[in-house]
Every structure is written in C-alpha cells, then in structure tokens.
Amino acid sequence: MLNCVYRLVSPRTIEPVQVDVAVGPEDVVVRPTHLSICNADQRYFQGRRSARAMAKKLPMALIHEGIGRVAWSADGVFEPGQRVVMLPNNPVETDDVIKENYLRSSQFCGSGYDGFMQELVVLPASRVIALPDSISDEVAAFTELVSVAVHAVSRFGEIAHVRRETVGVWGDGNVGFIVSLVLRSMYPNMNIVVFGRNAYKLADFTFVDQTFLTTDAAHAPLIDHAFECCGGDGAASAIGQIIDTIKPEGTISLMGVSENPVPVNTRMVLEKGLRMFGSSRSGRLDFERTLQLYREHPQIASYLESLVGSVNDVASIRDIAHAFDADARKPMGKTIMRWNM
Ligand SMILES: NC(=O)C1=CN([C@@H]2O[C@H](COP(=O)(O)OP(=O)(O)OC[C@H]3O[C@@H](n4cnc5c(N)ncnc54)[C@H](OP(=O)(O)O)[C@@H]3O)[C@@H](O)[C@H]2O)C=CC1
Ligand SMILES: O=C(CO)[C@H](O)[C@H](O)COP(=O)(O)O
Ligand SMILES: [Zn+2]
Question: Where does the chain bind Zn(2+) (predicted)?
C-alpha cells in the first residue's frame, strides 16, 4: 500500500516521503485524525538532543500520542470508521519479568521508528484499541500520556511500602497534573501535595489537597513517597527537594526526561534507605486501565479538558511547523493537531 509519511529529516525540516507499506492479515490501517505533541517530539523538532542522538533517530515521523478512524482491518476485528487510539509501543518479543515498554527490542513509534504523522498508520491489531464515545477527540488524542501516568502509578502500587498517607508530586505541568489526577482516582483518601514553580499553573490543581511553590516547600508536610514529573533543567532541584522532604524508606518515581546526567545526593538516599525507580512509556495493559478509569471516573475527562491548549488544523507541512511553534510558546497544556494530511 502506498502511504505518505511526514518525516523530520533535520531540526524543523519535515519532508513527505512516499513509502510502500506491507499490510498483513493481522494488521489494522488507521487514518489519524487527532495528534498531540509531547515534549519528546519537541526535543527532536527543535534539535534539542545531542548530535549523536539526532543522527541515530532521524529521519523519522514524529508523534506518539494520537487517535484515528479505522480505514481497514480483517473482518470483524474493527468496524470501518471506528474511532480508536493508537499504541506507540510495539513489542516484538514477550518476557515474564520485563514489561513490554522496557524491553530493549520493543519498537516505539516516534523514537527510532516512524510515529503517527502519516497519511495512514499500519499497526498490529494489538496496538489499536476502540475508544469510548464519552471522551472528546481532543482529550482522547493524549490518551498515551494518561496511560504513562497510569503505568507510573501502577508501578508505585507494586513497589512502594504500604504507608501511603501523603504523596508529593513535583511538576506543575502536563505530567504532574495527570499523575496527580490518576493518584486522586486510584487513592481517593491519599493526601496529595503538589510542588511547582508557577502559581497560575498550581491553581488548576483543584483536585489535590495542597500545593506549594518550590520556594515555600519548607512549609510543606513531610511525605511518604514522591513522583518527579519535571525533567530537563528542573530535575536536579526537584530530586534534591524530594530527598530532603521524604520520610525514610520512601519511594521516588522518576518520570522527567533529562538530556544530561542529573546529580543525586546519594549519601542521603543511603541514610534514609530510599527507593528510586524510573517509569517510561506504557504498554497495552496501561491503555486498557486508562480507558477503564475513564469509564469508572467520568470526571477525569472534564479535568483533562482543562489541559487541552491550542487545537490546530493541519493540512500542510507549514501547518505542522506552526503547531510545533505554538506548542513551544504555550504557557501550559497540550497542543492538538487536527490531522488532515
Ligand atoms: N516518563 C515518561 O514516559 C514521560 C516523560 N515525560 C517527561 O516529563 C517531563 C515533564 O513533561 P511535561 O509535564 O509535559 O512538561 P511541562 O514543561 O509541561 O511541565 C514541567 C513543569 O515542571 C515545572 N518544574 C520545573 N522544575 C521544577 C521543580 N524543580 N519543582 C517543581 N516543578 C518544576 C516547570 O516549571 P517551569 O517551566 O517554570 O520551569 C513546568 O511547569 C518532561 O521531561 C517530559 O519529557 C513526558 C511524557 C512521558
Ligand atoms: O514521551 C515519552 C513517552 O510518552 C518518552 O519520554 C519518550 O518516548 C522518550 O523517547 P526518546 O528517548 O526518543 O526521547
Ligand atoms: Zn510522550
């Protein structure tokens, strides 16, 4: 099947490439309709990764958060026109211990493999899930990001000790917001405390118990466990503040992506017997849990609507650049592309 793939070939340069894609009997062909930009996409588009990383990853189509309509599937698997979410992580092996999103052999759309900026996306049937009608297109577009939060909170449930009275979330952006929202849904009695750098962003965290500017953290309660949802230049100070604020034997879930190694006060990690674990991406089980959360807690969708930032109609490569530039300027929230390529 001939298909047009919009690949980033160098920073800020996207080219349409005609490719002949084989469609297997178990595959599903999805026509993307709504795509959502992640910080990871911006790092490639703006050229903010090392030259080595850029050379390794490009050329590739960006975007790993998206939904679409089924254009073709084997009989009875999906209905033509059915609205579905696309799963970017594609495992090529199974493992009894290591989850699919941590297997080094897994192929991730938008990181070394073409992402969803395509005319049509061909995926194995297991990488496509039908969406409930209750979720708007714009919110559904970033279901992958919500699944990442569900994955991280699920791992917290598996790893953290049982005293979970007060949990701190560092980061007042998209990831901090969604992780806090998932914690609220899964642990309704938990005291959730959010630490951020922007009062106007913290004001949106109406569903948590307390918010603090990082400069006021001395007035915050000690916490049992923490999530670091900052990354970049903010990661070191967030992790340092978490280590200072957390009680002994607490867990620290690291979620922020940093291009450079982050210094950690290991002496205090030892002294407090802390547990640090990383969470990245998500698997099919996390998407299924996310859609179940949407069904069990309909209020989640309305909170997530507040994250929808700019919605951009995209019908040309110039429109793609405009959407990425709008995203780079955004004060907060998710940038959605209505995909008409
Ligand atoms: N693990 C995974 O699978 C995933 C990881 N990520 C990563 O998570 C990180 C956050 O993403 P996202 O929420 O979209 O980014 P945003 O930029 O929307 O949010 C980050 C927020 O954290 C604030 N911040 C920075 N430093 C600190 C600090 N020390 N304490 C408290 N808040 C701080 C920033 O404030 P200010 O801007 O004022 O500095 C900003 O408001 C990124 O690195 C992203 O790549 C994203 C998706 C999935
Ligand atoms: O955003 C993410 C998942 O939603 C991950 O941070 C992203 O996939 C990491 O990929 P890369 O190593 O290419 O930056
Ligand atoms: Zn992402």
Answer: 38, 64-65, 144
Kindly give the pairing relationship between strand 83-86 and strand 65-73. Answer: antiparallel
Mutate which of 111, 254, 259, 286 for ligand 2 pocket (most atoms within 8 A of beta carbon): 111
- The stretch 170-180 carries a mean pLDDT of 98
173: CB partners within 8 A, 6+ apart: 196, 201, 229, 230, 332
Task: Give the N- to C-terminal CA distance of the chain in Å, as an integer.
Answer: 17
Q: Which residues pair with 196 in a beta bridge?
A: 213
Give the fold, CATH level 3, of 148-278: Rossmann fold (3.40.50)
Pick the CATH number of 2-144+307-339 from 3.40.50.150, 3.40.190.10, 3.40.50.300, 3.90.180.10: 3.90.180.10
Query: pTM for this one?
Result: 0.98
Per the document, the length of the chain is 341
DSSP 22-73: ---TTEEEEEEEEEE--HHHHHHHTT-S-HHHHHHH-SEE---EEEEEEEEE
Pocket flag, ligand 2, residue 54 (CB < 6 Å) = no
Tell me: is residue 38 an annotated ligand-binding position: yes
Mutate to test the pocket of ligand 1, among 36, 37, 39 (most ligand atoms within 8 A of CB): 39
Predicted confidence (pLDDT) per residue in 83-97, tens digit: 999 999 999 999 999
CATH 3.90.180.10 positions along the chain are 2-144+307-339
Identify the residue whose C-alpha is closest to ligand 1 atom 29.
238
Residues of the chain with CATH 3.40.50.720: 148-278
pLDDT digits (tens, 9 = 90+) for 243-295: 999 999 999 999 999 999 999 999 999 999 999 999 999 999 999 999 999 99
ipTM exceeds 0.95: yes
Integer angstrom CA distances of residue 235 from 34, 46, 71: 30, 20, 42
